[in-house]
Each structure stands twice: as structure tokens, then as C-alpha cells.
Design goal:
ten-stranded mixed β-sheet, alpha/beta, six-stranded parallel β-sheet, about 500 residues, single chain, ALN_composite
Amino acid sequence: MAASAKGRFVPVLAVAAALVAALLYRAPFSKSLGGEGCSLLPHDHFWIASDRVVTLGRVGPAAVEVKGGLINAIAVGDYRNFVLRRPLLDYGDAVIMPGLIDVHAHLDEPGRAEWEGFSTGTRAAAAGGITTLVDMPLNSFPSTVSEETLKLKLEAAQDKLYVDVGFWGGLVPENAFNPSALESLLNAGVLGLKSFMCPSGIDDFPMTNSTHIEEGLVTLAKYQRPLLIHAERIPDVEDDDGLDGELDPRSYATYLKSRPPAWEESAIKDLQRAMKDTGAGGRSEGAHIHIVHLSDAKTSLELMKDAKRSGASVTVETCPHYLAFSAEEVPDGDTRFKCAPPIRDGMNRENLWKALLDGHIDMLSSDHSPADPDLKLMEEGDFLKAWGGISSLQFVLPVTWSYGKKYGITLNQLAAWWSENPAKLAGQKNKGAILPGYHADIVVWKPEAQFELDDSHSVYHKHRNISAYLGKELSGKVLSTFVRGNLVFAEDKHAKAACGVTILAK
């Protein structure tokens, strides 16, 4: 038995106890891809091993037993010195870590599958080591704001999922003051709700104000589920530095000026009472506020630190594109880089990294927000009219690693930002770690392997040409992705059948 970080015991198979007299079957990986249907591997009971397994708060040699879709046991130590009864996939010195959980992705189906759909989106996720997605309630049509529209999502996802997918519902003015409508949506299984404090750009997903949010949190408190907030709000009195005169719409500086940090600051200030009410004794105690894609690492970040210190139940995420790029590097006219909030300057990027490393930012998400290429207006290069959103789902693991290496990020930090903490936000108690009894959601990857995202690289997004990461040289190649024990991606191949499941809250 070995103690976990929380002081409880988990059943870890000791190396000495694993010495059994049985014939070793160590299948060469390249010859093991013979499965049909859900998995490329023709076994449902097997071991995977390497010299770098991220488990139990450590990174080191271990073998992981997978049985019936779950992690059954972990053998810590020099696994090559003992004999196992089952097939073993030995990955050498590749990293074995929990599959990534992306709590912020737009898959746009039903209604806008030409932007991205469940099949293409989850294939890209699997190729990127993501084993669980939580789909946003907008950009599809209709938006997921009711029990009926959630059913449409579930129908559209049927037989198309290569990874597991959960769903956020929408908090909008029409349901914010209607507890029965919100309870119907929550009872139907959404993992929480999402709202915008500025225009979303989607007609059937209007913006909310702090009053809507406060009322919605009271209902969410009964279910102990989170409210995710796009925290940009147009200030009541805008700064004199706003857009005026003849400005070049192809200039990234023009777009940056159109959405200043004051928008994020204004939204978070407006949320202060709502955040306070989530604390002990508050009106919405039991609910949780999660700020999505934080971009401003100055006043907005300081306000979030203050809220946490005051006992509010809040978390914060940022995205790889805010950590990889800076405003100074965005070419004029290259609308692939347009997102909201915007990518800000280099000093802001440094401060975001510091906040992430110091624990003030809790997790990462992709905010994969694709679109039909025509909407990006790449030929015109008009930042003010082009559709905003970074297409990134398949690349977030190597991007985070590649740009984080200079800050000395560790594999354990990577697992916390992309697996453990997102699992907690989404209420997934059996995901986010390599531990006995957990789902066998695992990514195997080579941190040292370098590659260029050029035309020869396999990309599974619906529209590869709209990604801002194309042309970048990255480190960290995904070798294999297991979802509930199924080998769904390996050697640039996907399993023949899409056997991911929809995740509904109970």
C-alpha cells in the first residue's frame, strides 16, 4: 500500500509482490495495433509501462495495469525486473500521464458542423492527448440553454465521439430568473452553466449582467455545480483612449485598442458581490464561479487574488495562446490570432506565466473556437470584422510544453493544469489522475521529440488553415491516447469506431 497526497491509501502493487512465475508477453508496440472497433489494441486487460509515469505525486519508472476500462493497479519501480501475466506495452522513456481534460471547447454541432463537429473535434482531441472535453453551449445552433436543446446536442453526438464529452449549459436572461427552467437543464445533466458579460456574437446566446448571474448562482448552489463566466464587460464610462478617427482595421494594435484590459477589470469588479456570496454563509454557498480565458495579468488578476483570499469559491483559467504569443508578434492582417479577450503584450504574457506557476491561475483550457475559414477574412485581414477564436485543440499539449520549458515547468504541474484541476471543476471524480479505480484515460508522449506544424503534419481539425500555430516548431509528440482503456489513437491512426461516451451529471 502507498499513501496518496491526501493521506489515504490506494492499492499500489509493490514490485516485490509482482514476481510471478508466468510467461512474459511484452508485445512490440508496432505489432500490437490489431484491434477492431473501439480500440487499436486487441486486449481489454493489459499493462503499459515506462521510465516516466506521472502518478502518486512523482515521476518515475512504473507499470500501470488496465482492466475493464479502469486502472486496476500500479507497480512502482523497476518494472523490467519482474514478470507480468498480461500483455505489456513498454514505452521506454516516453511519458505516461493522465489524459488531458479540456473544459472549454466549441464543437459547434448541431447547426454549425461546417465550423467544427463532434467527429472532427474529438479526433483532433484524441490526436492531441485529450481524453475528455466539455463542450460550450454556444456556437452550435440552437445554443444549449434548455433541456430540449441539450437533447439535440446528445443526438448530434451519437456515434461520433472519439473521446468522452460533457456539456455546459447556458445562463442567459431568459432562464436566469426562472429556477424551474434552470433546474430542468441541470437535471438533464449539464455539468454547470456558462454566461457572457458582453455580447457573445451569437444571437440566441445574449449577454447577462451581475443580477442575472447572482440569481443563477442561487440555483447552481443547490446542485454544487460551477458557473463559467466570460468576464469582459464594456465599462459604463469608456477610457478616452478608445477607437476614434481613421484607424487601420488590418492593424492588430487597432483590435487590441478595441478590447482593452479595462473590459476584463470592469466585469470582475461587477462580479465582486456574486463572488462573495459563494463563500461560507453566502446566499449562493455551494456554487462556484470560474473565470474563463483570463487575459489581463494586471488589475483583473489582482482582483481574482483578492476574491480567493476573501474565501470566495472561485477559480481561474487561461489558455495556451495567451502564454505562447504576444501582441508584438502578431502580424498585421493575420486574423488567425484574433480572439476575445485579445492576446496582450509580452510583459502581460510573462505575468500570466508567473501567476500560473505561483498557483493564482488554476488550470488551462484550449478555448478551441473554430469557424468556417471565410469568416476569418484572412484575405482582407480585417481584425474588427473577422470572427474571433483560436483553433488549437490538437496542439495544446506540445504548445504548453514547448513554451513552458524556459520557465522550468514540470510534468506534475502539467498534469495539475490539464488533468487534475479541470477534473475537479467538471465534477469528474474518476478522471484526472493515474490511480487505481480511475478511468484509464492516459496519454503517452515524448517531450523531447520536435516537429514542425507544416503541410505534412496530420491535423484533424475541420479547418487546419485557420490555426495560428501552423508553421511553429514544437516539442512533445503524442504517441498514444487511451480513453477508458481503449487505445483510440496511435501512430497517426484512430480506432475504427468512435466509442467515447457522453458525460452527464447526476
